[in-house]
Specification:
One of its GO terms (cellular component) is catalytic step 2 spliceosome. This protein has 702 residues and is α/β, with parallel strands linked by helices. The protein has 28 helices and 21 strands. The strands form 4 sheets. An 8-stranded mixed beta sheet has the order 4-3-5-2-6-7-1-8, sandwiched between helices. A 6-stranded parallel beta sheet has the order 9-16-13-10-12-11, sandwiched between helices. Strands 17-18-19-21-20 form a 5-stranded mixed barrel. Bound molecules: adenosine-5'-diphosphate and magnesium ion.
Length: 702
Amino acid sequence: AGTAPADDDDTAAAAAADEYHAEAMDAKATLQDERKTLPVYKLKDDLLKAIDEHKVLIVVGETGSGKTTQIPQYLHEVGYTAGGRKKVACTQPRRVAAMSVAARVAEEMGVKLGHEVGYSIRFEDCTSEKTVIKYMTDGMLLREFLGEPDLGSYSVVVVDEAHERTLATDILFGLVKDIARLRPDMKLLISSATLNADKFSDFFDAAPVFRIPGRRFEVGIHYTVAPEADYIDAAVVTVLQLHVTEPPGGGDILLFLTGQEEIETVEEILRHRLRVLGGKVAELVICPIYANLPAELQAKIFEPAPAGARKVVLATNIAETSLTIDGIKYVVDPGFCKVKSYNPRTGMESLLVAPVSRASAEQRAGRSGRTGPGECFRLYTEYNFVSDLDDDAVPEIQRSNLASVVLALKALGINDLVGFDFMDPPPAESLLRALEELFALGALNSRGELTKTGRRMAEFPLDPMLSKAIVASERYGCSEEVITIAAMLSAGNAVFYRPRDKRVHADAARRAFHAGNAGDHVALLNVYNAWAESGYSPQWCRESFVQHRTMRRARDVRDQLGALLERVEIAPCSSAGGGDLDAVRKAVTAGYFRHAARLQRDGSYRAVKSRQTVFVHPSSGVAQAPPRWALYHELVLTTKEYMRQVTELKPEWLVEIAPHYYERKDVDEPEPKKTAAATTPQEQTTAGSTPTKQTPNLNSFF
Ligand code: ADP
Ligand code: MG
């Protein structure tokens, strides 16, 4: 290096290239060395032998032992990919994990991401003809069954992170078990971080369990003496105390939070307090990681902090087992996570912040003891840990709305849902609800069979209500508008932004999209169309206080929805071009009629069928002038039940569009005051379970 003659540009360039190449080779050599230090490496031959001998194998090993990144590579190396003719699939419950792990494996193999190694997540397919190792979300593999019911292009399916027991993973269990029986050439690996693998083994016909002995150093556990009133504040204080009092360069900190908003709040507080402390303390590098973090920033969490600095990773429970960050010595665990909960009686699904399970708490603590002794600070009392936490989290299938998976199963020709091979069956009530919902949407007929509408709906990787709105757009002549709205709704909640110093401008810009108080759905449509008219300009986004990143994603999603429209043979057609926004709103209503609510005298709303009291979210464009009848996209529970994305509705549409669901009396005005006043809370809740008008014969559904 540095010896190239300065007078010869070519030679210098060649030398620089050589040097670059040498460096790249060095990096590759180091990566290869690193691979060999992973616990799974020592067992490589035994593992491959076990896979060869058994059809189904349960693989259990401590997080970070190399299961996810190494096993697919081993399988590729010994020929399971048949020289490019077959693929190895590896499922992940989370999008970020699928992307991040694929990037790492591509790097280890020295190939470009998307070539031999790729990933597939909803609305983002980073694979090619060359791809032999494919990381994907469990939901995407589930969708692949629709196109290829025997998964014939895969020689091995690895269902990874099985202990997470996500809804899609649980459904996959039943499906892959079935095809593994049918396909003698296929191997199935179920990989998990928890040690009680017996349940998996039992389910898969007593499949053998292959254990990868973990290396885990001693972890000191610390509890608070009294419960913390404000865990965010307690977390910030703990992180700063650790940073200031522990020797610099002596290890990084991992703080578990419940979601993006919380992570952003903590990031802001930390930055502020560090500014106040000024040069008195060493540098603290803050690395957030959550599902919607842009890919460019995801890689940052794996970069070591500069010399003398410390890194603090602010993560959701993605860092519990899915991603392993080297160098963590301190874990701060407030003991909460976001969990989905579902009330089959009201049909309401919500995300709630809840205490973690003991199994999760143990996993979190373990993250600090991977490369040396660690410390875990639990921001709750030992008594809490022992007496209040559940042993394990409840599988998602038992606390979810099942409409989406039931539709997928029906589309796969699986009609006997009760007879489906569930590891833990969902509550019968949830199944019934899902069938009712799909019947109301016209996806199933009264015998529980998939209709043509249902078949078309199943093609879209969306919630059935949104799929229905798209399918219905054909009838209302507005497929162009409805896929735009669907894309905007799917691209994320962050469409607008509101910088602190420009609130007035931002609010004015935002109001402009709400001209005519046409509702939030139409406003989203307006935003997209204006952006498209600007030539998809980032400059336009800045001027309009619209997030360019969200818009780009919406455009990708829209392109894919457009392709799916073609697949289900719905012609592109536009009504709003001719100014008919009612057509657009009717199509949305065809999907979301169950989300109709009526304004009350006190300014709140009451859901027409469930009789639940709900409110317009302050961010909604209709918040200033609430319509008498409204339709919402979703409910979010913060301080109250808020409707997010609200649009005005004409009550007669409900009877016109969903005559099997609404009767005249549901929407006749004025609302009979007497009943309203006389409704006791008891009645209000039970009213939620009122069967649909035309109750299908549910027995025949099974
Ligand atoms: P397991 O699946 O058993 O939990 P992994 O295969 O995920 O283990 O991890 C093996 C190693 O690879 C860990 O040391 C981890 O830090 C590293 N690793 C995984 N993903 C990345 C990444 N995106 N960047 C850097 N290192 C990574
Ligand atoms: Mg893993």
